[in-house]
Hints:
Largest sheet: 5 strands, mixed
Radius of gyration: 12 Å
CATH architecture: 3-Layer(aba) Sandwich
Mean pLDDT: 95
CATH topology: Glutaredoxin
Strand order of the largest sheet: 1-3-2-4-5
Low-confidence stretches: none
Distance between the termini: 24 Å
Helix content: 25-40%
Structural class: alpha/beta
Shape: globular
Number of domains: 1
Amino acid sequence: xxxxxxxxxxxxxxxxxxxxxxxxxxxxxxxxxxxxxxxxxxxxxxxxxxxxxxxxxxxxxxxxxxxxxxxxxxxxxxxxxxxxxxxxxxxxxxxxxxxxxxxxxxxx
Length: 108
């Protein structure tokens, strides 16, 4: 059973960019209503979807990282494969829509 990892700026390179596993990165903040809606969806998908890693980055604690990736609205979800951002999504979305985005982003 996979869990969503909370990571910070210092872990991003190793956990995301150098990961062999396609990674979904959720940029969020505790005070963000839509982020609180997306959080449980990401937790469920992390358990249900094999071969995909899910991580969370708190934008309040990691402002430089959020800025580097052009995060202007949250939640911002980035899809990273082979060290490259292959797709992204801003805003909350239903579980099935997010699942389709993840599947589509990581198809070879």
